[in-house]
Task: inverse folding
């Protein structure tokens, strides 16, 4: 946005300069010492300056209005942008690094549960393009072949270790190493060509990750023992048919164990305390309960339950949201949400409102490192509903989510928490989530203090 404003300012100044020069040439026939010339020059230059300013402001306003009404909302936060308090002259990055160094991690469960994880949204990967992505502590190359299919393989070439995603080239349905030109097939990882060798060894291959492309997202399957996928991510028919269209996404990096994030669904009590203040009160928990914003309050009724066979890897949270303004209930803004979690890393937040329409937010949690999660929220909404509606919903959800981020980024994981009977769903959730760990699931052995943002 800043560069667009600068460009508009430069264009405005350029137009102004042209007008001034043209004006000077027109008035050049009048004697320079003539008072008429000086008055005409002054009034003409002033008028042209005003016109340029108005034109520039109009262009900026038109661009802003167009983005507001028609463009998807994209809010991409850096790891140190949200959830840290920068005081005493420290930067956000310094505050984040200090928290990472001093925080106690607690007795953690395994850090990488078995399941499906989002690596990219479909529109982020063009045909013939390759991207480097970090997932479950590994580097992978995600590329789209000329056949239109997305493939995921280990990023490092087994030959001499070059990163296939950094300078690598897509050839047909293969990825070509930028170092020596070895080509690896996307569907099985087998090397099919070595430019300078007479024969390609049978054992020459790069590890291929099981992947799928569904709901306009590319996902990979992780299992610590290398087992094949044990379930599939369901397809949202409205997205597949084009009835619901992309309206934006948010992205955050959370400095916490992955289990902390979905556990919020079963932590019903936190909603009444953390998420009752209106979204206008912001995300900094030091100020969200300010009396200035008490006129706007959110209220929640929530129920969480795991599903039974054959969908034991799924759970559901039923949410009823209501809003009061100056104590008056606005029933028009009552929203019912069904949040269905599929495995450890994918949640469907389904909205159904008689006036505001229907849609879904795809909430995806992808482990980047043992205690660093990439969380994305991608919204698809009815194509006949003005984009401003889903963009507002996504922004409101983002504000509420960033309040949780401030908690997660600074908390310690408690393996044996002190609970009351009203917290019973938390233990039920932990038992449900434990199915995604295996005996060989990796655990955090130590925490490095020098992994600074």
Result:
């Amino acid at each position: 946005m800043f560069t667009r404003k600068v460009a508009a300012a430069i264009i405005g100044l350029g137009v102004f300069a042209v007008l001034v020069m043209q004006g000077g040439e027109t008035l050049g026939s009048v004697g320079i010492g003539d008072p008429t010339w000086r008055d005409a020059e002054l009034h003409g230059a002033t008028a042209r300056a005003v016109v340029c300013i108005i034109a520039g402001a109009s262009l900026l306003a038109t661009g802003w209005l167009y983005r507001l009404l028609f463009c998807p909302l994209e809010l991409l936060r850096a790891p140190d942008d949200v959830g840290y308090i920068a005081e005493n002259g420290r930067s956000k990055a310094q505050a984040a690094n200090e928290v990472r160094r001093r925080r106690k991690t607690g007795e953690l469960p395994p850090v990488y549960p078995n399941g499906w994880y989002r690596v990219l949204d479909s529109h982020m990967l063009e045909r013939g393009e390759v991207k480097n992505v970090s997932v479950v502590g590994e580097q992978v190359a995600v590329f789209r072949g000329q056949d239109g299919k997305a493939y995921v393989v280990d990023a490092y070439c087994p030959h001499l270790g070059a990163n296939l995603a950094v300078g690598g080239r897509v050839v047909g349905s293969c990825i070509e190493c930028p170092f020596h030109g070895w080509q690896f097939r996307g569907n099985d990882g087998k090397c099919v060509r070595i430019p300078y060798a007479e024969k390609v060894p049978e054992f020459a291959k790069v590890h291929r990750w099981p992947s799928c492309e569904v709901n306009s997202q590319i996902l990979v399957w992780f299992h610590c023992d290398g087992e094949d996928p044990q379930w599939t991510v369901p397809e949202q028919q409205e997205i597949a048919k084009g009835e619901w269209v992309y309206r934006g996404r948010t992205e955050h990096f959370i400095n916490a164990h992955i289990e902390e994030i979905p556990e919020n669904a079963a932590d019903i009590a936190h909603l009444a305390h953390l998420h009752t203040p209106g979204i206008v009160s912001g995300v900094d928990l030091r100020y969200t309960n300010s009396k200035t914003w008490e006129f706007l309050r959110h209220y929640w009724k929530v129920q969480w339950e795991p599903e039974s066979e054959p969908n034991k890897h799924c759970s559901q949270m039923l949410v009823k949201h209501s809003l009061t303004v100056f104590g008056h209930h606005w029933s028009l803004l009552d929203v019912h949400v069904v949040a269905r979690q599929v495995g450890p890393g994918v949640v469907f937040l389904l909205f159904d409102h008689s006036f505001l329409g229907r849609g879904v937010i795809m909430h995806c949690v992808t482990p980047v490192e043992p205690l660093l999660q990439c969380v994305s929220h991608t919204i698809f909404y009815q194509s006949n509903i003005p984009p401003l509606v889903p963009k507002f919903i996504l922004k409101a959800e983002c504000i509420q989510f960033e309040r949780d981020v401030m908690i997660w980024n600074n908390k310690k994981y408690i393996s044996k928490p002190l609970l009351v009977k009203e917290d019973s769903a938390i233990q039920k959730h932990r038992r449900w989530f434990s199915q995604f760990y295996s005996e060989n699931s990796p655990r955090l052995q130590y925490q490095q203090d020098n992994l600074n943002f």
Notes: The longest strand covers residues 357-369.
